[in-house]
Specification:
The protein is mainly alpha-helical. It folds into three domains: 130 residues, Orthogonal Bundle (Cytochrome Bc1 Complex, Chain D, domain 2); 120 residues, Orthogonal Bundle (Cytochrome Bc1 Complex, Chain D, domain 2), CATH 1.10.760.10; 39 residues, no CATH class. 40% of the residues lie in helices and 3% in strands. The strands form two sheets. The protein has a two-stranded antiparallel sheet with strand order 1-2. A two-stranded antiparallel ribbon has the order 3-4. Strand 3 and strand 4 form a beta hairpin. Helix 9 packs across helix 12. The protein is globular.
């Protein structure tokens, strides 16, 4: 049985997981340097056919106009959120992000990378019915969900120039969405027959992630100082909170396998699917900011993701199984309407 998350076990048990993980990190640290070289070789692993099929819209190519300036401002907000809306900006009223991440920490290349949580095509996807709120939500509301969860902050005023600029940027990217769009999210992984294992994940992290994100998972700051990160923290006080989508193991594993180590592409992954699940479990048992009121998420419990790590649930499966799996029995029970 895998170690449980901080919501499921006392501090002493979490410490055991961390000590076991630290041991694995020491044993496998020599692999990190070797793997760093592999990362540089995989930077261009994407096939020419894929590169041609997925657009790379550039706001700088727009003709000079007020719209261009707004779109460029939106891109800057996505790439350097911490510099405009972070907790250290001079104007306290503009401190909407509660950490020093950028939207681009998850939406890779400012939302332009295929299967890197791309923004291409997103403008046309909203308004849409959202399971988390069980209601139709606008794009502005979806952006604010990220500010409150991934950025561990507070909602932007929907009428603000910053919200308008981000929506303008996403709209610009979406103008070039390919026909039969495939690549906005991350490819789905085949669910395992076992639970995801944080201790196995510690070895995967040491060999594939620690060289960028640090053995302590607290990221690598930008060279030359400043509040942002070259590689973002994956846990700790400056990371996403427990209400973020990345705090779900299935969700984060799909993103990790398609995009990590940095430079990997979905069609030439480095990690196996099981390694992605295990390392996602390891990352998500670490301490991070707590989001209050999670019991109000997914008011229709039948729409709650099977890997949601917080109750209540519409079934009789434990919080531990929802968090770590195996998830196949939960999915099977849902299909037949079992309690």
């Amino acid at each position: 049985m895998p170690p449980q998350s901080q919501h499921l076990r006392p501090a002493k048990a979490r410490r055991i997981v961390q000590l076991l993980a630290a041991t694995v990190l020491l044993v496998t640290s020599a692999a990190c340097g070797r793997h760093s070289a592999d990362i540089s070789r995989s930077d261009k692993a994407e096939t020419p056919a894929v590169a041609e099929a997925w657009p790379q819209p550039d706001p700088a190519a727009l003709e000079d106009s007020p719209r261009k300036q707004e779109v460029l401002y939106g891109e800057a907000l996505i790439r350097r959120t911490y510099a405009y809306l972070g907790p250290d900006v001079a104007d306290a009223e503009m401190r909407f992000a509660g950490n020093h991440l950028a939207c681009g920490s998850c939406h890779l290349d400012a939302g332009r990378k295929r299967y890197g949580l791309s923004f291409i095509g997103v403008a046309g996807a909203y308004p849409r019915d959202m399971a988390r709120e069980n209601e139709v939500r606008t794009l502005a509301q979806r952006i604010n969900g990220c500010f409150e969860r991934s950025m561990n902050g507070r909602a932007l005023p929907e009428e603000s120039p910053e919200m308008a600029a981000m929506i303008a940027y996403i709209g610009f990217l979406s103008e070039q969405a390919p026909a039969g769009l495939d690549g906005r999210g991350a490819p789905a992984l085949t669910l395992m027959d076992r639970a995801a294992d944080p201790v196995r994940g510690a070895a995967v992290f040491a060999a594939n992630c620690a060289s960028c994100h640090g053995a302590d998972g607290l990221g690598k700051a930008l060279e030359g100082g400043g509040p942002g990160y070259e590689y973002p923290p994956l846990w700790g006080p400056d990371s996403f909170n427990t209400g973020a989508g990345m705090h779900r193991i299935i969700k984060s594993a799909g993103f990790i396998r398609a995009n990590m180590p940095f430079g990997v592409t979905f069609d030439a992954p480095t990690l196996t699917e099981e390694e992605a699940f295990d390392v996602a479990a390891y990352i998500n048992v670490q301490a991070r900011p707590e989001k209050s009121g999670l019991d109000a998420d997914y008011p229709d419990r039948t729409r709650k993701p099977v890997d949601a790590p917080f109750p209540p649930y519409a079934d009789g499966f434990s919080q531990e199984q929802h968090t770590f799996g195996p998830w196949k029995p939960i999915e099977a029970a849902r299909k037949v309407g079992a309690p």
